[in-house]
Amino acid sequence: MSATRRARLLPGALVSMVMVTGIISSLGAPLIPSISADLGVSLSAAQWSLTATLLVGVVSAPIMGRLADGPRRREALLGSLLVVTAGSVIAALAPSLAVLVAGRAMQGLGLGLVPLGMAAARDELPAAQVPGVIGLLSVAGAAGVGAGYPISGLLAGIDLSAAFWFGAVASSLALALAFVFVPSTAGRPPAPLDAVGAALLTGGLAALLIAIAEGSGWGWGAAPTVVLFLAAIASLGIWAAQQLRVAEPLVDLRLARHPAVLTADVCATVLGVAMYMFLSAASEYVQTPSTLGYGFSASVVVAGLCLVPFSVVSVVGSRALPLSTRLLGKRNLLPVGSLVIAAGGLVFALFHVHLWSAFAMMAVLGLGFGLTFAAIPGMIVGAVPESETGSATGFYQVVRYIGFSLGSAIAASLLASATPAGSRLPGLSGYTAIVWTGIAICVAAAALAWLLPRRGAGAAREPDAAELRREEEEAELASAGLPGVGAD
Questions:
Q1: What is the pLDDT of residue 289?
Q2: pTM to 2 decimal places
Q3: CATH of domain 257-488
């Protein structure tokens, strides 16, 4: 194939790859009750099939971002897709939860592939074509996730392994596209990779998530729980100190010196926690047998469809960002968006005896997350020098995935604490605790989004007309991409 023809077909290939990885990443939340039933484990234990994927995504995103700028971009893309494919096969054949979680962790590597695709588009396409293709890649990622929910639900309704076999076929297709269309970057200078930082971050987060997810079962004062919390504090503390000293850090923590960046990243983390608590609660609650006195005995297909409004309305929220900025003011976007998310949780808390409340909750959550997750990149880009934009947006992706992982682990812990001995299904109090905790977290996020920017209030002044125009342009650019749901 000629270089000219390959360059012409590259955008379509990249969009297809990103959409496929989005679909594969969504093989999570709706399937947790099916995993629990098929493998005979509790819902809180089955939640690890989601948490493990997100944990790997936390670390893979910055690592892939580094590799995208080096001489081994193509090899990293092919190797990652090969691991994702192998993980899908392992998950499909898994005889136990431990093997399934291992396969799902391997699938989590796919969450770091979007930066590789965007870097390929940036370097291989004409400059005039790059913004549109990058925006399309963002849309494709979110569209893949939205499509993955009903697809995985439909396939799991036939057989649980069918959903993971579908993931294996889809990732094999993405692997073939990458092999044919993505050019090599051999000859470029090596991109420094902070392997020590990656190891410390992985170890610290793993210890923290295990302690949170299992602490209610072991006892919060039990030796294993305390040891894991101490190990997490030590590892993450050393990691933070190491990141501030190393010349090429995995995550540039110095960026938090900007009040707007600090506000955006703190809110992204907190809202990420709430998002995966709500997603887990809704998809698992609707599938709970109604004979328990709650739940709707819904199929996994209905559970997948329940999450579709989230993806669809998040598109609307992100596209409405410029209008929302003019109506609310840039200062109020995050506080208002956080309160909209809290309102979505309140809908389910008050009307959870009706199935429609789950769909309504997801739609309202989609609006709130669409607004906030589309606004945050613009806040970050407008606060840092152009030379720091890549690091700052990469930092945002990392903290957002950390929030997702923590939300999944907290949901597992709350469900475990409400699960009677000898049962694999939690009581209603577990879901009630998740929803009200999520609402409280969103209210806290709104307060943080309002108060943190006051750190720089002493130097604040009214923006002039040129600055207002620039802010609107940033909002337009941010709305070109979608917030997505990251994974599952």
A1: 92
A2: 0.81
A3: 1.20.1250.20
Q: How far apart are CA 55 and CA 141, in angstroms?
A: 19
The residue length of the chain stands at 488
CA distance 259 to 458: 12
CATH number given to 1-183: 1.20.1250.20
Please check whether residue 219 is in contact with residue 225, taking contact to mean a CB–CB distance below 8 angstroms.
yes
Structure tokens at 469: 């125009």
Q: For 188-211, how does the pLDDT look when each residue is reduced to its tens digit (9 = 90+)?
A: 887 788 889 989 999 999 999 899
